[in-house]
Amino acid sequence: xxxxxxxxxxxxxxxxxxxxxxxxxxxxxxxxxxxxxxxxxxxxxxxxxxxxxxxxxxxxxxxxxxxxxxxxxxxxxxxxxxxxxxxxxxxxxxxxxxxxxxxxxxxxxxxxxxxxxxxxxxxxxxxxxxxxxxxxxxxxxxxxxxxxxxxxxxxxxxxxxxxxxxxxxxxxxxxxxxxxxxxxxxxxxxxxxxxxxxxxxxxxxxxxxxxxxxxxxxxxxxxxxxxxxxxxxxxxxxxxxxxxxxxxxxxxxxxxxxxxxxxxxxxxxxxxxxxxxxxxxxxxxxxxxxxxxxxxxxxxxxxxxxxxxxxxxxxxxxxxxxxxxxxxxxxxxxxxxxxxxxxxxxxxxxxxxxxxxxxxxxxxxxxxxxxxxxxxxxxxxx
Length: 382
Known about the structure:
Elements: E1 12-22, E2 28-33, E3 37-44, E4 46-50, E5 55-59, E6 62-66, E7 71-76, E8 83-97, E9 100-105, E10 113-115, H1 118-137, H2 140-162, H3 168-184, H4 191-198, H5 202-213, H6 217-234, H7 239-245, H8 251-262, H9 266-289, H10 297-304, H11 308-319, H12 323-341, H13 347-353, H14 359-370, H15 374-379
Antiparallel strand pairs: 1-8, 2-7, 3-6, 3-8, 4-5, 4-7, 6-10, 8-9
């Protein structure tokens, strides 16, 4: 079943993975079937993506969609490695038929690759960044926030794909003002100055800008500044210097605006970002190595050169779950795919291919997390 934006809020959505991936020049994902819906937003670098039908060179501003079950292969440009947000999610639509609750898998009518204009890119960056942060927190309340953010992303994509027709001359004028904001956001800008750049009166400019962009010129300017500030804070720049480089008049105003929009002070964001970067790398390492039966808290600690107990405690404090549970959850996700899609594959083979090693360990862990045995799970799809 394919959905339009007015139906998105009826969906059951489960985000299985969200990550700000910074690739090295040897990064590659070999040809595999996508186990979930996969959305990718490229914010820097170049690469080549293949969906089983067409091969496309992707770059800054590209939004990529791999439907569930579709073949995908991804490589990065060795001289200009990809930086991108990537999200895996499952989506289904519940409905009643003959007084019985049923669920149908959702499909989305999104293109393989869509170039997002510079005007709208910060909106996608802001939403994907928020999603990654919520995913890492691991708190129960964040599960609801994750769904809300995913719905916002889906609605934004749908709105963008609609390509509503507007007065072309007004679009040119507003684009000129947006370009001016992106190039001069660190300077003291006023509404009158932006309207003058667009060749309109201040009141007319505000109305047209809101119609085309979806927010006021000043809100757009503040969001651009906050997005830049977050990038600088993640790079280790001091809060005082960030305030200056992002275009805020003083550090107190910067802190006030930042906390209002992000729910935390710049200093708190900076401290958390340094920890989150480590957690992101751990999650990516787990995602890439979960099939290795030797993957454990000790091997993760050894790989990152950190005491295993200390690393495990930090991981638990930030995400709200134990590292061993994260490893087992990823293995269970893969095992579920095998159980659902291959009725011939034995439990022993699934245990081995999913990283559990023995069927006994697989059955024990699966039942602990899912409340049923692998066999019972498989039978529910027959």
